[in-house]
Amino acid sequence: MSHKGNPKRFQNKIIELAVDKDQTLLPFLLEKLSNRSRNSIKSILTRGQASVGGHIQTRHNFPLRPGDKVQIRFGTPAAGTHLQGLTILHEDDDLIVVEKSAGLLTIATDKEKERTAYHQLMDYVREKHPTQRIFIVHRLDRDTSGVMLFAKKKSIQQKLQNHWKDIVLERTYIALVEGEVKKKAGSITSWFKESTTHLVYSSPKPNDGKKAVTHYKVLKSNRKYSLLEVNLETGRKNQIRVHMKDIGHPVVGDKKYGTNNRVIGRLGLHAAVLSFKHPRTGEVLRFLSKMPKVFLKPFA
User: Which residues are catalytic?
Assistant: First the structure.
């Protein structure tokens, strides 16, 4: 019998599903709840609505054995933590991959300590395992949205950071910039330095700072704006923002690096793709985050 027709039917109810063979949690739920979409079932896991043997499980690859009982709580999520501005795309014993909204800090500042991606994820993992921790691998600027990676073990964090160039296979951003970028594809190379006021700037002199290399191609443009696909060869602080300023096409909404343009009401930068080799298993993982529709507003 389909449950789709009456979503309130299972509000705040629990159903129990018996496991009759060795398999992992996501395929099991896809099979047992065949009337629901894959995204719907992933959401059930992300929100902490699935438990095995009384313990909440969010891992897609959590192993099930014959005789296990899987409980699904429909309605209010079982987990107490409500993630604001974050969606979990993947979680295993070593990593959490999330999609971050624009406006959310990665880590605390003097002004904002609690509503950060780091703080929320720390609360989230400790709800299930009180001694669990989260470790920052890389950051997205507050007003940049998209895919981010966190480690759940210090050793995993160190491996990712020490071998970042070898482990990360692709980092692709979408950037909405001012003006018509005439050259349809190109690369920008400079050496980054930072002022005492924490403003990053470019030096054209080789080895005068940290080398930064950015590749771009134009996806769409008119006389006032260009939409770019940007690939990072290096991962320097504010790299795309600085390089776009360098070529005379600052990122829309980027007051720090040269424009007060608020045509989309936010910074025009989105981390669209992150692909990497799992630091423990070697498996290639690739995560995508859809470009916010508002980025197309200047072309309507």
Answer: 141
Q: Which residue type is seen at 126?
A: R
pLDDT tens-digit series, residues 43-63: 788 777 788 876 778 888 989
How far is Cα 295 from Cα 252, in angstroms, rounded to an integer? Answer: 10
Euclidean distance between the first and the last CA atom of the chain, given in angstroms as a whole number: 44
Q: Which helix (H) or strand (E) holds 121?
A: helix 117-128
Per-residue pLDDT tens over the stretch 265-288: 999 999 999 999 999 999 999 999
DSSP assignment string, 248-293 = T-PBTT-GGGT----TTSS-SEEEEEEEEE-TTT--EEEEE-PPPG
What is the residue-averaged pLDDT of the chain?
A: 88
Q: Which pair of structure tokens corresponds to residue 286?
A: 């690739």
| Cβ–Cβ under 8 Å, residues 227 and 214 | no
Domain at 168-272, CATH from 3.90.70.10, 3.50.50.60, 3.30.2350.10, 1.20.1050.40: 3.30.2350.10
Going by the DSSP 8-state scheme, the letter that residue 233 receives in this structure is S
